Amino acid sequence: MDHSQPPDSVSLYPGITAGVNPVNALLVVDMQVDFLTGSLAVPDGPSVVDPVKDIIGLPFHFRYASKDWHPRGHISFASTHPGKEVFGRTTIYPPEDLVKAKGQDTSTIGERGLEQVLWPDHCVQGTLGAQLIDPLHEDRFDAIILKGVDPGVECYSAFKDPWGLLVTNLEELLKERGVTDLYVVGVAGDYCVKESAMDAIKFNVWNTWVVKEGVRSVSTEGKEWETMKSAGIGIIDTVRELKVKLGV
User: Fold this and answer.
1) What are residue 167's phi and psi, to 5 degrees?
2) Single GO molecular-function term (predicted)?
3) Which end of the chain is more exposed for a tag (fewer CB within 10 A), N or C?
């Protein structure tokens, strides 16, 4: 696909470059049918489609989209846990086979439990609900990042699961392309958008920004914005402000 030309740059970090002008990448998080109009739709979800569409059309050097891509019977589904209700909670643990594959100590698995919200079945591999919502299409992106693909592991972040057992190729892609500024939009702001941005800032390699107008959340409390801001993530309120920052 066509890109804006990356600027002349100098080496800043192995695989990372920075010059007079930044190398901008966009991450569109989980703009899928089930999260916008389907089984796990965020409040006011459809209203975010047009802002995200406008943002995708801005002159980023690279564009990526993440998708939940769950097998049937995924650990995050309430239907997988007999007697548990949708939006109830349970404790999940890292699968032993994945812990072994990482060369980690399996004797500590019982100490690594995490609270898990139990969701309706959503974004099941190969279903309509897992597709990107119209008018967003996969051919607009340089790569699609699939997450939550293992039946026993939840994965909100587009980079990795909370135990670091399953890592996507997003970090590698951003480093290979010398990205200096990563802009994040999508759903849900208090889950996958927040966790993706929080992981992104931890690399301390690129600036991370979240565009508020291009995000919708499950909760209306808005705590995620203070959490992200406190972590050093830049918050851009509107698409108009983003255009100014990008020099459009």
Assistant:
1) -115, 130
2) metal ion binding
3) N
Work out whether the CA dihedral 199, 200, 205, 208 comes out positive or negative: negative
Q: Which domain holds residue 220?
A: 18-71+131-246
Cis peptide preceding 135, ω within 30 of 0: yes
Instruction: Report which secondary-structure segment, H or E, holds 143.
Output: strand 143-147
Does the annotation mark 243 as catalytic?
no
Q: How many CB atoms lie within 10 A of CB 97?
A: 12
Name the active-site residue from 68, 192, 199, 212. Answer: 192
Contact present, 170 and 205 (Cβ < 8 Å):
no
- Is a pLDDT exceeding 90 seen at residue 197? yes
Give the Cα separation of 215 and 236 in Å (integer): 11
Please say if 175 is a catalytic residue: no
| Given 67, 147, 194, 212, the catalytic residue | 147
Kindly report the CATH number assigned to the domain that includes residue 211: 3.40.50.850
pLDDT at 21: 80
Confidence of residue 20 (pLDDT cuts 50, 70, 90): low
Gyration radius of the chain over CA positions = 18
237: in domain: yes
Map tokens 């135990």 to a residue: 163
Q: Mean pLDDT throughout 3-31?
A: 61
* Cα–Cα dist 192/202, whole Å: 16
